[in-house]
Amino acid sequence: MSLPHALLTALIERPSSGFDLAARFDKSMAYFWQASHQQIYRELARLEESGWVRSSADESARGGRKVYEVLDAGREELRRWVAEPADPRPLREELMVRLRADAAVGPCGLESEIARRLALHQAQLAVYQAIEQRDFAASSPQRAQRLQHLVLQAGILMESMWCEFSERALAILNEPEPEPGPGSGEAVTAQSVNPPSS
Amino acid sequence: MSLPHALLTALIERPSSGFDLAARFDKSMAYFWQASHQQIYRELARLEESGWVRSSADESARGGRKVYEVLDAGREELRRWVAEPADPRPLREELMVRLRADAAVGPCGLESEIARRLALHQAQLAVYQAIEQRDFAASSPQRAQRLQHLVLQAGILMESMWCEFSERALAILNEPEPEPGPGSGEAVTAQSVNPPSS
DNA sequence: CGGGGCATGTAACCTGTTACATGATTAG
DNA sequence: CTAATCATGTAACAGGTTACATGCCCCG
């Protein structure tokens, strides 16, 4: 339930239309939150209904462009929400399910997929590092700047972690099997091992 | 859409009832996937409808206990799915939105929340490390074992990352402000800084 | 005047969460 | 007998995804 507050934040940074927000969510906020334009329009309507933002038709632009800005009630709500405790949302990582499944039924050719994802994570890491060099080369004493840098660093930490993980996974998957066995050539090793703890 | 395949995997590891699966999802699979019992029952019904699993009433147990086991079609489906390419699901990390919001509206007292979460991540890390010591002390040559260890290591990497991140965040949030300013005591620093790239 | 980008939406659907409902068995 | 635990479900809803619908305006 943080989409409304993500939108409030983005609108405080700069009043915008739904369209602009959708575009900006692919940039400044994409490290850790994203939303489709449908979601954004839906949510903007709710925010306005709650009296947290106000829209005004932008006559200078084409189409029925509506620019939203945050009202005082919206700011208060945002400040209230920021300090509210919230447990980390549990992970849902499909790749781990695949690895478990591969462990259960025997080799399924997962290596190429992992290699592909390693490349993706390396590329994303490079993008983040380029942004860091461009925008945060000099360490700033300003609180807001440092926090924004921190969020970017989280993205960097995350991508680094996935690179590291992918390499470990490839090392295991590409390992030659201990004894291939001359006869039946499939899924023999799998059944014997049960999950570790219980 | 990996819940059905997570269930297939768990059922291959050991045929079980819905209730057992719900309990086991809190253990062996909880690092990276979880599901409520409602989801599990709903999904088991679908799996049976698809002809991937079969249920049989367990007379020896109390209640209307139904034990599910995976059929050949289910195994085939699982093998097919494992190799299927799938991009990493984008992150959704509420805490990052909070940090961004704090950067936008000024200090909101986020430190205590971050400290709380640091403690949570440290605790979880300790749990994972204990499991690792207990179940994976000796390095095994068996593929399935090594993959299961790998998945646990992903959990460890993840928790370590969050600890590292939380500490960095606390360092910034607890820093004294450069010039506090004698007059107005609120939200002055925020507005001047815009998001980095655009 | 036609195509492409700007701009705003509706509708249907799937997944996951929360709350509620039901009954069987066993321990005290 | 009663409470706890085992065991299986239904219903309603919220959030997110996909597909579709609509119209404006500028450029060629």
Explain this structure.
Two copies of one chain form a homodimer. Chain A is mainly α and 198 residues long. Chain A is 57% helix and 6% strand. The first copy, chain A, has seven helices and three strands; from the N terminus they run αβααββαααα. In chain A, strands 1-3-2 form a three-stranded antiparallel β-sheet. In chain A, strand 2 and strand 3 (66-70) form a beta hairpin. In chain A, helix 1 crosses helix 4, helix 2 packs across helix 3 and helix 6 runs antiparallel to helix 7. The longest helix of chain A is centred in the C-terminal third of the chain and has 31 residues, at 143-173. The relative contact order of chain A is 0.09. Chains A and B meet through helix 1, helix 4, helix 5, helix 6 and helix 7 of A and helix 1, helix 4, helix 5, helix 6 and helix 7 of B. Chain A binds a DNA duplex (28 and 28 nucleotides) through residues 1, 3, 17-19, 22, 35-39, 41-42, 45, 61-66.
Give the percentage of residues in beta strands of chain A. 5-15%
Please mark out the parts of chain A with pLDDT under 50 across 5 or more consecutive residues, or reply none: 183-198
The N- to C-terminal Cα distance of chain A equals 34 Å
Biggest interface: A-B, 93 and 92 residues
Radius of gyration of chain A: 23 Å
Number of strands of chain A: 3
Described by its quaternary structure, the protein is homodimer
Indicate the structural class of chain A. mainly alpha
Sum up the overall morphology of chain A in one term. elongated
Across the major sheet of chain A, the strand order is 1-3-2
Arithmetic mean of pLDDT of chain A: 88
Main sheet attributes: strand count, strand direction, barrel closure of chain A: 3 strands, antiparallel
What's the total helix number of chain A?
Answer: 7
> From N to C, what is the helix and strand string of chain A?
HEHHEEHHHH
Helix proportion range of chain A: 55-70%
